[in-house]
Amino acid sequence: MSGDPAPSPATSSTSEVPEGTPAPMGPGVLASAQALLGDLRVAFQERVQLLSLELRQAGLALTQMIMFAVVVALLIVSAWLALMVGLFMASTAFGLHWSLAIGVVFAVNAGGAVGLWLKVRRLTMQLMLPATVRTIRASLPVSAATAAPAVASNEPVMTPVPPVPVKEAEHG
Question: Strand, helix or coil at 97?
Answer without folding.
Answer: coil
